[in-house]
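Pilot study result, target chain (226 residues):
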Amino acid sequence: MDERLKKLLGLAVEDVIRTGEPVGSQRMVEAYGLEVSPATVRNWFGELEDLGCLTHPHTSSGRVPTEKGYRLYVDEIMLKKQLPKRDAQDLDKALSAEDLSDECKKAAAKCAAEITNGAVVLGLRRSDTYYTGLSHLFAQPEFSDWQHVVNFGNILDTLDDMLQRVRQEAYVEPDIRLGRECPFGSMCGSVLLTLGDGTLFGILGPMRMDYALAKSVLLHVKQKLK
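Predicted structure:
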């Protein structure tokens, strides 16, 4: 893919992550100062559709990324995001206990859920499972479809068994799993990290979640728990 299309895909993905809405050619030109016409952007959108990176919802004139589009964005386009100072301070406060007990990790999980506006799942050392922030997740427009809520609820019913399978692999660095790769369901995205004591720390959101922010949160947690 040439740089012209990569740039457009990156802007489209980031716009949809932020707004939760399909993005149109006119908005791309006006919001991002593209020095081309909306007609040219529509043509480029068509090229990205042909490559399988964007799709055109029937109910909208805008485009949204496909699973392939998100994957390409994460692998080749996404830039590192600096964790805002206040968020870093909140995480530091949650992780200030010297013993880094399970309660301390749970406090960090709650903080991470607030920062990312998603859910957090912990697989603790004693094979206990803890999750928080589900209200953030279900408030996302993707879960306005009740069937998605039901499907995700079924996943939660088997969460302990699923985490046991996920924890067979160590995630030394934050690992982004989305769509069909995501252990929490194909409508979701997740960023997973294995802490030094074996605890699994996973941040979960819709597929359009802010992966750069979630990754920066987990990198901060990893640094704090060295």
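One observation from the pilot: The CA atoms of residues 152 and 185 lie 7 Å apart. A full batch analysis is planned for the follow-on phase.
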